Amino acid sequence: MSSESEREAAAKAHWDAVWGGKTPEDVSWFQPSPTPSLRALEVAGVGPEARLVDVGGGASRLVDALLERGFRALTVVDLAEAALEAAKARLGVEAEKVRWVAGDVRALEPEAIGPVDVWHDRAVFHFLTEAEDRARYRRLLEATLVPGGVAIVATFAPDGPEKCSGLPVRRWSAEALAEELGLALVEGWRETHETPWGSEQRFQWAVSARFAR
Ligand SMILES: C[S@@+](CC[C@H](N)C(=O)[O-])C[C@H]1O[C@@H](n2cnc3c(N)ncnc32)[C@H](O)[C@@H]1O
To answer: Residues 47, 30, 99, 154: what is their CA dihedral angle, to the nearest 10 degrees?
Structure first.
C-alpha cells in the first residue's frame, strides 16, 4: 500500500493534469446549474447566513449560485489550483468575496476552512478508497463542522460507475455514507447526472446532521 504522502502527490498530479488540459465544461461531472446541491440546501433548511465550505469544489458553479443568493461566508477548497483559477476567472470581481483554499482535504488544518455550518462535497469523498484517507477526511469534517451543522455529500451510487475521471471510486448508499462520517442521516436520494456527452451516471445524495452537544 502507498503512503499518505504518495497518495496525495498522485492525486495532485492527476488533478493538475485534468484541470490543466480540459475546460470546465468538458469534464464528465460538469453541470450547467448546481440544481441538486441547491435542492440539498433546501432540504437542510440552510439560509444565506450559513458559513459553507465546498470541498473539492473544482470549477463548479455552485459558488456563483450561492453568491447570487446572498451567501457571504463561502470557502472553496481544491487541490488543483487551475480549477480554482478557472472559477475565479469566471466570477471576476465577485471572486473576492470567496475564500479560496488550494489543498488536499486529507491534509488541511481545520483553521484553513472552519468553522462552518455546511460542509458540501459533490464527487470527492468517493475517491477515498483507503480507510485511512476516509478517517483523515472525517477528522477534518469533525474539526470544522459545528455541532448542529449539516453535511451534504454526493458520491456515485451503489449502481453508479466504478470510476470517475479514470480513477477507481468507492460507491455509497446514503445510510452507509452517514455512518462512515459519524453523522445522522436527514435525507438521502438518488440523482441521475447527464454528462456533457449524454451518458448517465447514478449519484447518491445524503444530507446528514452533526448532533449538537
Ligand atoms: C469529480 S470533480 C468534482 C468537482 C466539483 N465538486 C463539482 O461537482 O463540479 C472532483 C474535484 O475534487 C478535487 N479533488 C480530488 N481529490 C481531492 C482531495 N483529496 N482534496 C481536495 N480536492 C480534491 C479535484 O481537483 C476536482 O476538482
So the answer is: 60
